[in-house]
Amino acid sequence: MSIGFNYVNTHPPVIFFTSWKNGNDPSPGKFSFGIDSNAYLQLLTWRGSMIYWRSQVWDGNLMGRASSRNFTSMIYLTLTRRNDGFSLELSVSDPSSFARCTLHHSGAMQCSSWDRISQNWQIYSSVPTNDCNLYGWCGQFAYCDPYATLAACKCLEGFEPTLQSQWDIGNYSAGCSRRMVLQCGEGDEFQRVEGMKLPDQFVYLRNRNLGDCKSECIRNCSCTAYAYAEVTQDNSTMTRCLVWMGELIDTETFPAGGQDLYLRLMNSTSSTLGSKSKSRKTIIIVSLSSAIFCLVCSFMLWKFRKEIKGICLSVNSRNNLIVFDESSGEEPVQGQKLPLIHFDVLLVATDNFSDSNKLGRGGFGIVYKGKLPSGQEIAVKRLLIGSGQGAMEFKNEMITIIKLQHKNLVKLLGCCVHGEEKLLVYEYMPNKALDFFLFDPAQKIELDWGKRFNIIKGIARGLLYLHEDSRLRIIHRDLKASNILLDKDMTPKISDFGIARIFRGNQNEANTKRIVGTYGYMSPEYAMQGLFSVKSDVYSFGVLLLEILRGCQISSFPENRNYHNLLDYAWKLWTEGNAKEYIDPSIANSCNLDQAIKSIHVGLLCVQDNSNDRPNMSLVVFMLENKITISSTPRQPVFTIQKIPNLNGSDPALINLRDSFNSMTITAEEGR
User: Are 106 and 37 within one domain?
Assistant: First the structure.
């Protein structure tokens, strides 16, 4: 297969992909993918006639390069120039290897490689991955920072939000406006902005050197920016001069592979408004005020660092607070900004933390509902005063989650430190937690099959982001129904990162003597030996998936004393060919039977005893979202947790069949 664009009179002029209508209907869907016929230097995904996603502008280098696990070949995605146009080619370094790219019915362009071990396609690349990748998400003259947690959109230098009130609530569509009007002439200058995804709607000028490219922009008062590159293709070099007339749209910052954009601004010397005429009195007042402000900030910073050892805050030019882990020796990373919210504001928002606003009890504190003066609803997690373990989890959750941004992860809005009080402020989830619906016979009828399957897929996508697509590899270590929050649309959000661990570099596994988590969801190697990895989360996901399908909690499986627990029940029904009997009776007659049985299959693959037998999350997502036949056969889950009567006659207690634990901390099973 190939896609391309011909700029001579050939037919058809454009060859592109079209998505399926949905996962079961191969008729043409609403998404298409191909080379931009207006500026044949970039790739586009369209949703109908509107642009949905756009690639970086081609500069003669590879459009993409990747490799995946269990796949020894390197995969190349290249844009090749021909005499009559351009074509996009997918190639592999080893001709005996297989790779492919497909346009999913959701609009994601997914590239996969064939895994000879699992005998399945594994996704190694998918775009778009977050809001930053959506076309024009930040509006005009703004760029998106994919590594920011809160305000991912930022104005370009010399610009400010057009509607600050909308910007404050996360609506960036109005973009940014200039602070100072251009002079159009010698009063203007060009600022070099490095590492950018170049904006859309450019004009491509041929045969221009760098000086010519700049001159073309200077003499046109409508020109707002230019970019230049020397493109080498087939041992020949051509120049690429791009100029922008009017607004700049759809750009973001790249840590690697970005290009230089020369942005037109008012000359800094021209913008000095009578600096020499300022009175000596004004200068003294400003200097004194700055000194006092710095002293106050230094004192507050010292006080905060004293209260939470290992976390440091610094102030940037916009008075945002930057959080970083002092103990790791790292410097603050641009974009890790977390505003401090005043304690008095949270007192008012939660009605002095009244019981009527209590949402539940988390791993180290109580969660309250609140409402800010702006009307925004929030969830406030309040650390239990005097909890040493909670303080450590507070620090860990704060420095972990500010590095993450995904639609299936809960969003951290800010934090508060006031004396012994330590609080985290999250977006409010009106539908509470998954366990509120799933394990309540009266509420579970709200979860029909469509909602349950979307929740399963959303959790899988969130874990895939944590394990493979975020900047850091995050192991959650406490994935369970009470830690899955549901927004107004029942979209799942993974929450509670208090005991999460970050893997750096090539680290794939770690060992700990302090085992934390929840009985029933822990993988065997973690509970027995303290070993944890991404496959530990895969095990927890498998347990959670099987709970969703049955509508029953693993620790309270009451239906048949012939089975140890829910996993044992699912596996035996599967091996007997009666998997459909496992499905929750409340949805058994209305569910998509093929999807449900395949989900049981995936769940059993995830809870296998040997971590090497479990699939990674990219394969799990692929199996769930594609209509394929799964060839792998699950092994019996031998690690079980069962109920036995307490010898003292009290309530049944959960125990492990092999009592060989190290120091263990069990988190609460209560909903949020």
Answer: yes
478 is catalytic: yes
Q: What is the pLDDT of residues 78-135, one digit of tens each?
A: 766 666 666 777 777 777 788 888 999 999 988 888 888 888 888 878 888 888 889 9
pLDDT one-digit tens code per residue, 264-299? 988 754 443 333 333 444 444 545 555 555 554 445
Which of 201, 573, 502 lies closest to 333 in space, CA to CA? 502
- What's the Rg (C-alpha) of the chain? 28
Report residue 360: phi and psi, to 5°.
Answer: 160, -175
Using a cut of 0.85, tell me whether the model's pTM lies above it: no
CATH number at residue 310: 3.30.200.20
Residue 380's domain comprises 294-428
Q: Do residues 451 and 404 touch, judged by C-beta distance below 8 A?
A: no
Q: Tell me 133's DSSP state.
A: G
Counting every residue, how long is the chain? 672
Residue spans of beta strands (DSSP E) within 340-434: 358-361, 365-371, 377-383, 412-418, 421-427
Domain count within the chain? 4
Which residues are paired to 492 by β-bridges? 486
- Top-confidence residue, 253 or 651: 253
Q: Look at residues 592, 648, 660 and name the one whose alpha carbon lies nearest to residue 624.
A: 592
DSSP designation for 162: S
129, 157, 189 - which closes a domain: 129
Q: Measuring CA to CA, which residue among 266, 219, 220, 217 is closest to residue 243?
A: 217
Catalytic site residue from 36, 59, 478, 584: 478
What digits encode the pLDDT tens for the residues 333-349? 344 456 778 888 899 99
Question: For residue 12, is the peptide bond before it cis, meaning its omega torsion is within 30 degrees of 0?
Answer: yes
Q: What is the CATH number of the domain that holds 615?
A: 1.10.510.10
Q: For 585-595, what is the mean pLDDT? A: 92
